[in-house]
Amino acid sequence: MTSPTVKLNSGHQMPLVGFGLWKVNNDTCADQVYNAIKSGYRLFDGACDYGNEQESGQGVARAIKEGIVKREDLFLVSKLWNSFHDGDKVEPICKKQLDDWGIDYFDLYIVHFPIALKYVDPKERYPPGFTYDGENIVPGKASIQETWTAMEGLVDKGLAKSIGISNFNGQLILDLLRYAKIVPATLQIEHHPYLTQEGLVKFAKDHDIIVTAYSSFGPQSFLELDMQQAKDTPLLFDNPTVKSIADKHSKTPAQTLLRWATQRGIAVIPKSNNQGRLAQNLDVTSFDLSTSELDEISGLNKNLRFNDPLNVSSINPCPHMRGID
Ligand SMILES: NC(=O)c1ccc[n+]([C@@H]2O[C@H](COP(=O)([O-])OP(=O)(O)OC[C@H]3O[C@@H](n4cnc5c(N)ncnc54)[C@H](OP(=O)(O)O)[C@@H]3O)[C@@H](O)[C@H]2O)c1
Question: Which atom of ligand 1 is nearest the CA belonging to 278?
Fold first, then answer.
């Protein structure tokens, strides 16, 4: 089974269902990517910050070497980390990431956050995370315009086929659209029934920007980080509405949550460290929920966000914020 694709405003086709690489362990990552390709996954959502791009590339290389796929069958995504927003740092870091993957272009390269942090030399620390020196978060000086212009240069040079953004709100996108020569192909956002972001999703759709949902299972992903907010939130998998709709369609709650997104044209990139769940998560376009079922799930919205950089100290303690220097 492979995923259906959606056409991006760049003209390229993107699978609607992919595999997310955040928190995929380094020691198992290459095998997981390889096995996911064998299971039918074609899109892999990576990032500098996930610290596993070399291993992801090894999994890809093995699948290509064994003739399971060709490079052009895959849709490989990576992200520009906050420490590399300066205009002159975008291309070098993109090239480093391509080297890590062992490929010569990304299908999609995304600005991970609309947050510029002070440059950290990859020779000093990589991936750098949120801090400049392992302790302090130090803002950088690049505007989003400077960064986006450099991102457009990646397309011109063939290093990225499409470029996108992540964690941007509507106001920031409106501003970006004033100067963008290339409209972002995708917007990746936290999106699950506790955070439906309907206004932003409609805004993106109206501007021909495909939305990709991350953390589609809400609190589940953040339990792995031992986040208190996630522990305090009832699991979506146990939600009676989600469970009863899942039972009606003889699907799991996870599949139901993913279908709720894909049926509305929203791409998904669930992560699983388990081969069975990974296979299950790909089978999320072969059944349809009714309009009232979609609405019932949307009705669970609480505007509850788990991945908020302002809460970064709850994920990765780094207490000191310094002014721009
Ligand atoms: N742009 C951004 O800022 C951003 C932020 C967060 C995430 N992302 C991307 O989005 C991807 C997905 O988001 P995510 O990693 O936060 O979380 P997610 O895919 O919503 O959830 C992952 C959690 O759900 C479990 N799980 C997966 N499939 C399951 C199933 N069928 N049944 C039951 N449990 C299941 C996983 O456990 P097991 O592994 O044990 O199966 C894991 O605990 C990331 O990997 C990353 O690529 C992007």
Answer: 28
Q: How far is CA 260 from the centre of its chain?
A: 18
CA angle (225 as vertex; 132, 169 as ends), nearest 5? 65
Which pLDDT tens digit goes with each residue over 177-228? 999 999 999 999 999 999 999 999 999 999 999 999 999 999 999 999 999 9
Domain ranges of the chain: 5-321
Q: How far apart (Å, rounded) are the C-alpha atoms in residues 205 and 27?
A: 38
Strands (E), the chain: 5-7, 13-15, 19-20, 43-45, 75-80, 106-111, 136-137, 160-166, 186-190, 210-214, 267-268, 320-321
- 5-321: CATH class: alpha beta
At 28-45, the pLDDT tens digits run 999 999 999 999 999 999
Beta bridge partners of 163: 109
Residue to mutate, 112, 221, 315, ligand 1, most ligand atoms under 8 Å from C-beta: 221
Model pLDDT, residue 317: 40
Active site residues: 50
Q: Is the dihedral of CA 164, 78, 143, 89 positive or negative?
A: negative
Does the CB atom of residue 45 touch ligand 1 within 6 A? Answer: yes
pLDDT tens sequence across 101-118: 999 999 999 999 999 999
